[in-house]
Design a protein that fits this description.
Pfam families: Usp. The protein has 163 residues and is of the alpha/beta class. It has helices at 15-31, 64-68, 79-95, 110-120, 136-141, 144-151; strands at residues 6-10, 34-41, 101-107, 125-129, 155-159. Helix 1 (15-31) crosses helix 3 and helix 4 runs parallel beside helix 6.
């Protein structure tokens, strides 16, 4: 068994996050480590509905608008969508060689969800994609990989997922 026993990777179902899942799965397989796949989402509301937009002074992560609703409101994943993302990521991870896989749905913003879950599952490594690192918005507002790297107390592997 390698030096990493538990590897955590987050996905939102996007192509780039699935590349991170695949990379994390291959790495976990090489290490003989458990792979925890997580997707973060906001509280559940009626399936397919829109929650009220956050007040500007309470919106801490404007990048969420791209994934969760361009009008500034947050599109809240229904249970089926969240578990569809996790199922697809789990299948991809199994195809990449991971054996011990745990799929987790976590309520909250991505950075806080990943860092909290890392503590909860005693992860040794968090794997994230590089989306936002080289964008203007990412440099001004921060990005998930940069924010996770600042807040996590464990090793971070940032995977190149954007062409």
């Amino acid at each position: 068994m390698g030096s990493y026993r538990t590897v955590l990777v987050g996905t939102d179902g996007s192509d780039s996050s699935m590349k991170a899942v695949e990379h994390a799965a291959k790495f976990a397989a090489q290490q003989g480590a458990k792979l925890v796949i997580a997707t973060a989402h906001f509280h559940e509301v009626e399936k397919g509905s829109w929650a009220r937009p956050a007040a500007p002074e309470k919106a801490s992560d404007r990048r969420a608008e791209d994934a969760l609703g361009r009008d500034g409101g947050y599109r809240v994943h229904g249970d089926a969508h969240v578990y569809e993302i996790l199922h697809e990521a789990g299948e991809l991870a199994r195809g990449a060689g991971a054996q011990d896989i745990d799929e987790r749905s976590v309520i909250g913003a991505p950075v806080e969800a990943l860092t909290t879950l890392a503590q909860d599952v005693a992860a040794d490594l968090i794997v994230v994609g590089d989306v936002g690192l080289n964008s203007t918005a990412g440099r001004l507002l921060g990005s998930v990989p940069a924010d996770v790297a600042r807040k996590a107390k464990i090793d971070i592997l940032i995977v190149h997922t954007v062409d």
